[in-house]
Each structure stands twice: as structure tokens, then as C-alpha cells.
Write a structure and sequence with these properties.
Layout (H helix, E strand, L loop, with lengths): L1 H14 L7 H7 L13 H4 L8 E4 L3 E4 L5 E3 L6 E3 L2 E3 L10 H11 L12 H7 L21 E4 L8 E6 L4 E7 L9 E2 L9
Antiparallel strand pairs: 1-2, 2-3, 3-9, 4-5, 6-7, 7-8
Length: 197
Amino acid sequence: MKQTSNRTDTRIDRRTNGKKVTCAFLLGLLTTGCGQAEVDVLCADYFSTGDIAGYEAVGDRFVRHSESGVLWYRCAVGQRFEGNKCVGEPSLASGEEATAAIAGFADQIGVDATAWTLPNQSDYATITNEACHTPKVNVQAFPQAGTGYYLAAGEGKADNLACGVRFADGVSSCVISKRTPRPLMMVKKGQELAARE
């Protein structure tokens, strides 16, 4: 956590040409207090090239979240990670199609299709907690991330509803349409990469 705080302070200093914005000054302007204030900056401007702070690169297509240990494919399902960017269009799947879409794509890119799953809301919460927005993820770790809802594992509030997380601002919901095709990510938990991955 301290590293994130220092990174935020450094970025604020850099963006204000070295003028330090102090908590005392902000406290006078904000009634919510310094702990609740959030920097209003796009993640594309917040992260410098190659800055995957909070993640460890695993191979050339994956990152492991440092705190949770969850392994993420760096692009949406359907895209290929090439030259530090995501190439192609993300696959869109409804809630009923998500598992098959992930298995089919994992097989296409040569990873163990049985080990990769749809992230749940808690998984997404670990990557959408950055002090920036639109999308609210480290765009160096997840290049070309969209801003709409991504499907999440979990039960919707009704039979026709699914769970998802909006990448623009990290909002999580279980009242999105199960039938509407949406992009999805894929994760691998508690296992090392197989030799062929």
C-alpha cells in the first residue's frame, strides 16, 4: 500500500511541475478529508510507459497481481497480446456463453483451457482500484482495456441478470443483462503456468 501512495505522490508532483499539493491545502477545500480525495486523471496519463506497478510479468502474455497472486491474461478474450499491446477485437459473450468462450480462446492461444476462468467481482476489484479512471486499470499491464462492463463470475440478482464490472470507474453490479454480449477477461488462480504456456 505504501508503494501505491508514493507512486501517487510522485505522479501528482510530476503533473504539477514539481509543485507539491499538500493534504492540509486539500483539507481546506474538501469536506470529505484527504483520505477520501481521488486524483482526477486518466490512467493513460497516470502510468508511464512500461510501468506495471502492482503486477509481475509472467511470460510475454500474462501478469500476476502482486497482492492477490491471481494470474491475468493481459487482453480481453479474443485479443492477442503482441508487441506490448492487444491486437484484434475482443470477443463478446453473454453470461451463458462466457465459460465456453474462455475455454475456446484459451485453446486457441495454447494454454490449458481447463485452468482459466472468468474473474469474479473480487478479482476485478483488485485491478480496478487505481487512483485514475477511464479505464480504472493499469493500462500498461492491461493495454487497450475498454471502459464498459466486463462480465464477472457470480449469480445475478435475478435469473435474467449477470454480474459485471465497469472498467471506466470500477463499479461492480449484478443487475446487468445476462443476454447482452459483453467483453470478458480470463484468470488463472493458485497454479503455475504449464510448460506450454
